[in-house]
Specification:
Oligomer: single chain
Distance between the termini: 37 Å
Protein name: Zinc finger SWIM domain protein
InterPro entries: Znf_SWIM
Strand order of the largest sheet: 5-4-11-7-8-9-20-19-18-14
CATH topology of the largest domain: DNA Polymerase III, Chain A, domain 2
Number of helices: 13
CATH architecture of the largest domain: Roll
Keywords: Metal-binding, Zinc, Zinc-finger
Number of strands: 28
Strand content: 25-35%
Number of domains: 4
GO molecular function, one term: zinc ion binding
Shape: globular
Helix content: 25-40%
Structural class: alpha+beta
């Protein structure tokens, strides 16, 4: 696994402090992008939280996921959460160390009481002393929230006094992109009241044997019941113990909404959203605890087309930190079709520049603070497919194609609806549920005339 180290420099540790009759939650920021460009320590909000205890528990839940490895638990994760200011809300995001759980706390305008929320994205320090202090927070005494340094600190600090160095694996970066692509295909499958949500979530098993078949649930009256197979309307719940972070806020839940794609016979991802006063906490689970989002392959089609690369560059300049991105509006502004805009948004998602909110059924703008091109450069199947093209391994013959790889010949066929199938072992095992294999991806790129500097052979000769 390819890794780099990300240095996070904070002016001081985040802390929960006494402040007159209430308390001050000061969340320190480290490097990020705003409408004014890159800033060392951006400032997004200062004001009060409408539901202090609930917000504290929601933030702890996001931090729980950032520090967790739900598979191979011996090595804890350590990346600080990411916060985005979208003008009308604050979004706190994290990813588990194993790459299989994505968490997001949306503190909406109803949960904030203060000056206008800023725009931009940055990492935020959530250290162990702060976690302990937030865990002890009780009652509803006024809680003042500051995201970013104090005004005095902005003008007088010459350098950081707290620095963290954390590993940043490629699979973690790709996971953010894949989770966003998967979520865009979800529909609302069930909605439970707060009381039913508590009963259902507390009835779930605390562990699942490795290699066990995934659990499925289906709406039944006012609740959900388990089922052994993906019947119509069922939602996959692989590794139910991975929902443990929701327990932080269960007593305050007003509803539970469950999202997922149409079952296709195999395990699929799902999203579990707890509605809270003035905020939402969402956990998105990969199809298998042993299988992180990074290998799902949902972004490969968008990465394989040069057209999407140009469209993404055009669309990116039109983004303005909107909490909801309307593809139709972007299509009108960019002079593109809605389909091309959606492909461009998928590509921007691989760079961490957009996310997807299942509650709003809409993309939102954010700029993750890492190398935006790295997830694409180090995607194994994409790298291998480009290598096959560069070595002239693809021969096109109408709806069929032949790909020579490792002294073997694979046949790739395109169906009437444009889907590609392959004779390789990857396709035989996953049947397209984890995106295209490298051979099908190379054929797709060849058909689109990917500029690789090497002609692609056809049955009638070279071209």
């Amino acid at each position: 696994m390819t890794r780099s180290v990300q240095a996070l420099a904070y002016a001081r540790p985040s802390a929960l402090e006494s402040l007159g009759s209430g308390r001050l939650l000061g969340l320190e920021t480290s490097g990020g992008l705003t409408p004014h460009g890159a800033e060392a320590r951006p400032r997004f909000f200062t004001g009060f939280l409408s539901s202090p205890q609930i917000a504290a528990r929601g933030l702890l839940a996001v931090a729980d996921v950032a520090a967790a490895r739900y598979y191979q638990r011996i090595r804890p994760g350590s990346l600080d959460p990411v916060v985005t200011g979208n003008g009308d809300r604050l979004r706190f995001e994290s990813f588990s160390g194993c790459g299989g759980v994505y968490a997001r706390l949306d503190v909406l305008s109803a949960g904030l009481d203060g000056a206008e929320t800023g725009h931009g994205t940055t990492n935020v320090d959530v250290n162990n002393p702060l976690r302990e202090a937030l865990s002890r927070l009780t009652g509803d005494d006024p809680l003042h929230l500051r995201v970013g340094p104090e005004e005095l600190a902005v003008t007088t600090l010459d350098g950081p006094v707290v620095e963290k160095k954390v590993p940043l694996p490629d699979r973690w970066l790709r996971g953010f992109a894949e989770a966003q692509v998967a979520s865009a295909g979800f529909d609302l499958r069930a909605e439970l009241s707060g009381a039913e949500a508590v009963r259902f979530l507390r009835s779930l098993p605390r562990s699942q044997a490795r290699g066990a078949a995934p659990m499925w649930v289906v709406p039944s009256g006012r609740t959900l019941r388990p089922t052994t197979r993906p019947v119509p309307g069922a939602v996959c719940l692989a590794g139910p113990d991975r929902l443990v972070a929701l327990e932080r806020v269960l007593r305050h839940a007003t509803a539970l909404r469950v999202y997922g794609p149409v079952p296709d016979g195999g395990p699929v991802p799902s999203a579990w959203e707890v509605e809270l006063p003035g905020m939402r906490l969402t956990l998105t689970l990969s199809p298998d605890p042993a299988r992180g989002f990074s290998g799902e392959g949902g972004v490969l089609e968008a990465l394989a087309t040069e057209e999407a690369a140009g469209d993404a560059e055009l669309v990116s300049v039109l983004l303005a930190w909107e909490p909801r991105i309307d593809p139709a509006d972007l299509a009108e502004q960019a002079g593109l079709s809605v389909e091309r805009v959606r492909a461009a948004l998928t590509r921007l998602g691989t760079a961490g520049r957009v996310g997807y909110d299942v509650a709003d059924a809409a993309y939102f703008h954010r700029e993750l603070p890492y190398d935006a091109d790295r997830a694409e450069r180090h995607n194994p199947r994409l790298v291998d497919a480009r290598g096959l093209l560069a070595h002239g391994a693809v021969t096109l013959d109408g709806e069929l194609a032949t790909v020579v790889s490792a002294d073997r010949r694979y046949r790739v066929r395109e169906s009437a609806d444009g889907r590609l199938s392959c004779t390789c072992a990857w396709w035989a095992e996953y049947r397209g549920r984890r995106g295209p294999c490298k051979h099908a991806l190379a054929v797709r790129m060849a058909r689109r005339g990917a500029a690789v500097g090497t002609p692609v052979a056809t049955a009638g000769g070279a071209r």
